[in-house]
Amino acid sequence: MPLHPTIAAVTDRIRARSAESRGAYLDRIRHAAEAGPARAHLSCGNQAHAYAAMGADKTALAEARQPNIGIVTAYNDMLSAHQPYEHYPERIRAAARRAGATAQVAGGVPAMCDGVTQGQPGMELSLFSRDVIALAAGVAMSHNCYDAALYLGICDKIVPGLIMAAATFGHVPAVFVPAGPMTSGLPNDEKSKVRQKFATGEVGRAELMAAEMASYHGPGTCTFYGTANTNQMLMEFMGLHLPGASFVNPGTPLREALTEAAVARAAAITALGNDYTPAGEILDERAFVNGIVGLMATGGSTNLVLHLPAMARAAGILLDLDDFAALSDAVPLMARVYPNGLADVNHFHAAGGLAFMIGELLSAGLLHEDVRTVAGGGLSRYAQEPTLQSGTLAWAEGPRESLNDKVLRPAADPFQPSGGLKQLAGNLGRGVMKVSAVAPERHVIEAPARIFASQDEVKAAFKRGEFTADCVVVVRFQGPRANGMPELHSLTPTLSVLQDRGLKVALVTDGRMSGASGKVPAAIHVSPEAAVGGPLARLCDGDILRVDAVAGTIEALVPDFAARAPVQADLSANRHGIGRELFEVFRTHAGPAETGGALVV
Predict the structure, then answer these.
(1) What's the pLDDT tens digit per position in 300-321?
(2) 113 is in an annotated binding site
(3) Full-model pTM
(4) CA 368, CA 3: separation in Å to the nearest integer?
């Protein structure tokens, strides 16, 4: 199937826009590669320090004839998704020896749990943790001892931060190693109902805690289709996982076999062999277009609209919101996974998962097949699925028909003809809305504005019974330069209750919403942000706003709007406590949301 004209056109304009920065990037990584395996240039003293604790591997390391794989790990047991990584290093070292290689933990990176920090001051560090992760991984790789790298990370900011580091060390092959989703517990929609009942006082904290614990119940990624699982999808669409690795549960024989295979593959694609596959050459404009196509086809997290531009910039590629909008218009929504449906990622995987979806999108000409991946040339490898045959890992052709059309549909008969995200632009700035979970009758909301400076103010007004009419809730001064751009996911139960009471309600904010949000129409990531004098800072209570996901606009219907002076907020409360004082330099220098809200790229 020839490439769809929109896919080709968007790829061409990204390539043209990025020609200078991408060319300079490729020159840098090729120069680094030409210097040869890094360890050859370390002094004997340098190497002795690096190998002192490596026991039986010392001789192989000193001889420098075998590949040495650096492990960058985001292990902690605060995140259920990352807890399985605890024993991965020892397993990786053993697998490396079997593959004729060595492996070392190069370093660890922080990995915060957004589920723990939702609605808390710590959430104001969340976005910036992505850049800290990139910096920490950069420190790990700066030892210059590694012929390839294995990146162990899954959740919200961890994968984007690791990609930024892998791109920066783009001459080094990189394989991303997932740990898989937890098994299904209390259905996500049942958990959501309990949250709404708690918000209205119908149930107490004991009932809420029981529901939450039954949903988040064991090791593995949370099972809804939020940012963590969107990241895992992305790594397959972009060719950085082994095919079919994303959604295999932790602790299973297949999961362990895939991890061992990732080690063997990392050893095989170094510059010491004949299949050198540097990460920077995988991460080209075609890979990023494929990733955005996957985001649209699956109805993935809005957080990736923020992260993908930052990830791309690390590889010299410049993405724009217009690219997301054009691809969303061309790509059908093929999946319904909570919050866009009732199924979780285990149900999605059982229905045919990524192998079915990638095969369908390739057949429809909606993906670049001619890409490099860690598995070899061509994305068609990712239309295969892994199996164990007599204990041996093998790949077979993936399903060509959906096994549950309530969860997963073919490209020719999708849930809706366009993707799950919509760009919004107007006199309030530029933003994005996740429309895949919003009922069509709620795609256009026109109502008076209620202006707030924090999510706590919204919840307090709700408890006072102030929301009695249609409204557009504006929560401003939530951008990177104001308070680190926290997710406002804790507003979801409150706004959902108002919507369920029959009110027309929308959210407009320069902050973020969780990848698990979506029922309420929300114009998010609005840029320029209020803290730098953006249009949201000129709004007043009662202004009539129109949030239109059909036309793709966010407008203040106020005659004198452009002439108003922006208000300035007192942001001093965001400067201290729970580590926020350490991040002043990030708040001062962060870029705008539309380019990723980043400091380091």
Answers:
(1) 999 999 999 999 999 999 999 9
(2) no
(3) 0.94
(4) 7
